[in-house]
Amino acid sequence: MRAGTTEAKRSGQELGYLWGLVMLIVRGCSGGLQVRMMGPAWSSWWRLREYAADDYAARFGQAAALASFLEENVLLYDVPIRFVWMTTESHPPTTLRVDRLREHLERI
Length: 108
Hints:
By secondary structure, the chain is mostly helical. The chain contains four helices and no strands. The chain has two domains: 1-30; 38-107, no CATH class. It has helices at residues 2-30, 32-59, 63-74, 94-107.
C-alpha cells in the first residue's frame, strides 16, 4: 500500500506543478503578468506627470492656489507610503507636491 500512496502523492505533486505552469502561461497570455511587472514603471510615469502638471500650473501663476487647495482638501487624506517607487500608487505624496509648489513661489 505504501508504494501506491507514494505514487499517488508524486502524481499529485506533478499535477500541482503542471497546474502552476499552466496558470503562469495563461497569465502571461492574458497580460496579467505583464501588468504586474510593468505596474511600478507606469505608476512612476504617472507620478512624474503629476509633477509636470504642477509645474505647468505654477508657470501660469496658480502655484499658491493649487498648494492651498492641496493642503486644505487632499493633505488630510494623504497617507505616506514607504518605497513608493515600488508600488502602483499613481499619485506622488501630497506633501512633496506642496513643497515643490512653495519652491516655485520662492523663486518668483
